[in-house]
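Structure request: Carbonic anhydrase, Quercus lobata.
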Amino acid sequence: MSLRISFSVLAITLLLVGTSADDLVEELNSISFGYTGVHGPEKWGSLSPLFSACSNGKRQSPVNIVKNKVVRNKNLKPLTRDYSTANATLVNNGFNIGLFFEENVGVLVADGKNFSLKQMHWHSPSEHRINGEQFPTELHMVHKAADGSFAVVSILYQYGDADPLLSKIKNELNELAKEVCAKNEESHIPVKALDTKHMEKKTRKYYRYIGSLTTPPCTENVTWSILGKVRSISKEQVELLQAPLDSTCKKNSRPLQELNGRQIELFAELGDS
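Returned structure:
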């Protein structure tokens, strides 16, 4: 089964595509995409002219990070993240699980520019790879600046101890798994007073490149920061993230994209490499 564009994707698309909202809604409601078969990633670009960047774009994501090919950039600064406690909504849009914030939950400062945290969602297995290694899960923290540009902080996870954030919303994830979505619907579970303060741990190392959204419309010029520290997640938590999803989207990772001459840069504090 393929999945129609959800409100979550539509909300981002409306900010990025230069067309009228009514026309865009009508067209998007008629489009389905998925991760297998005739609606899979290799076909996304042909599903709609709105998705042309998925096949024609030259700055697409995700990518493989080859450590001995990255360039250390001494002009990059530490990522400054200041998050707080806020109400959120846990959403199953059929192809991933996400947390969406209606109020101001915090700010990322990247290259001297402020980006507000809007949502975070998970992909399993990971979309980005390091030296070809794919990890069990990847979290995308999506931030938006006042000028409409996006910056995504990516966190990779390996199997081990339970992730603190997912532990906090375990009951809500279990509740979400009971909901059944139609192709063009979402399941929503409110999450009250979610504390995201622990997500702003000091960043000693990250990889930086300019890429795209990893789902249609695959819009480019997204600033990516992939944290160098791999965090831990339990197998039970990965299963909880996959349980509510359609059977064709339990593995919701877009294949690797070509760099096409792009350079991946490295920020590392003295002593890290």
